[in-house]
Amino acid sequence: MSDDFHDFFDENTHWVEHGTAAPAGNASEPPRPPKSRKEMRQRRAQRQRKRFSGIIIAIVVVALIAGGGYFGFTKLMAWRDSRSQSTTANVADYPGPGYGEVEFTVDDGQSAAEVAQNLVEADVIKSAAAFTSVVGANDITLYPGTFTLKKHMAATDVVDVLSDSKQASGFLEVRPGERANDVIEAAAKLSGIDKSEFDKLVDDKGKGILPTEAGGSFEGWFEPGTYNVKSMTSAKDVLKAMVDKRIAKLDDLGVPSGKERERVMIIASIAEAEVNKADYYAKVTRVIENRLEQGMTLGMDSTVAYGNNVKPAQVTTAMTQDDSNPYNTYKISGLPPTPISNPGDSAIKAAMEPEEGDWLYFCTVNLDTGETKFATTAEEHDKNVAELRQWQADHQD
Q1: Are 297 and 291 contacting, i.e. CB atoms less than 8 angstroms apart?
Q2: Are 307 and 376 a contacting pair, CB within 8 Å?
């Protein structure tokens, strides 16, 4: 009776929420009397069959979707693999190892596609695709420089060479603290351009290359960095590349223009030459400013050495007494006429913003570590010099 009773209400009861309309039809008509138990059992069985059929249909649909997706996925992967194999098979490539000799240059910033096209034009590889596919598949880094290759090489062999920076040549490395004549000599050697072509530009005071504030001297006006001089066709191109990059860097650093810019460069070059630690640069530039303010000579071995074209360690007492040397800051007050090297960023920043202090002297007391001590009085400085002399005595061969 309980099942029959619930079946009756499932079939015939209409729930009406408060405030909503009643079902269509005669709202006052009472519910129909219960059907026979047989009929109610039949209807209940029918509902169960419908419910079961719905579940089966849902399962079948999900299965078909999953099966179809897997089938489609496997077909897609098979198509991709076959396409990849077909593409690989169609990429033209030389078997290698090749013959002859080719000087090939990779410029800084060139893409793999650009390098590949140049390799094809040089008849080093058979197709650009053979090269770029190897680079892309292995996430290879190609280095700038001039490399020695062969004609008709296998693409993988070419990639091995161009991804090895040790095999690159023709790139000039300009380091902070280097002198202009050393940079020019190296540039001539690496570029293959006759040194006399560079000398002409130096003798002509860098006309058309140097800014006015340089005063016709290249010293200090070569920006430290790497330059592909092998790819440049003239001495002017080489020197202009380094000077232009220096000017751009000075602008970025906010170095004042005109005479003040040259002054900053001179002070920075002395700091670069006198100590080998960036931590000391701002103290050295403060010493220079303090001595200039008090009318003292700078007394820097580095400037005397520059004027004599020797290293600071080779400065002699006679050199410090030679007042014919315009760079002898023991005898001549004020700054030297030009920078004495190519200062780096840290030294330039130190020249613009010297550290606060009243130091008038400094002395490197350990030539191995570069330890440098600063002093405000001559007596204190003499003690530091004595410490240096003792260190030199202890480390004589």
Answers
A1: yes
A2: no
Give me the residue label for tokens 């290879």: 140
Supply 33's token pair.
């009397």
Distance between start and end Cα atoms, the chain: 118
266-277 pLDDT, tens digit per residue, is: 999 999 999 988
Read off the pLDDT of residues 345-367 as tens digits, 9 standing for 90 and up.
Answer: 999 999 999 999 999 999 999 98
Pick the CATH number of 99-167 from 3.30.1490.480, 3.40.50.720, 1.20.1250.20, 3.40.50.970: 3.30.1490.480
Residues in the chain: 397
10 Å Cβ neighbour count for 171?
Answer: 19
Q: 42-80: per-residue pLDDT in tens? A: 666 566 666 655 666 656 455 555 555 555 545 445 444
* Opening angle at CA 291, ends 286 and 295, nearest 5: 150
Name the nearest CA neighbour of 359 among 389, 380, 385: 380
The rounded distance, in Å, linking the Cα atoms of 297 and 294 is: 9
| Sequence-ordered list of residues with C-beta below 8 angstroms from that of 10, at least 6 positions apart, any chain | none
Q: Break the chain into its structural domains and give their ranges.
A: 1-11+32-90, 99-167, 172-253, 276-359
Task: Count Cα neighbours of 117 within 13 Å in the Cβ-side half-sphere.
Answer: 4
Contact 151, 104 (CB under 8 A): no
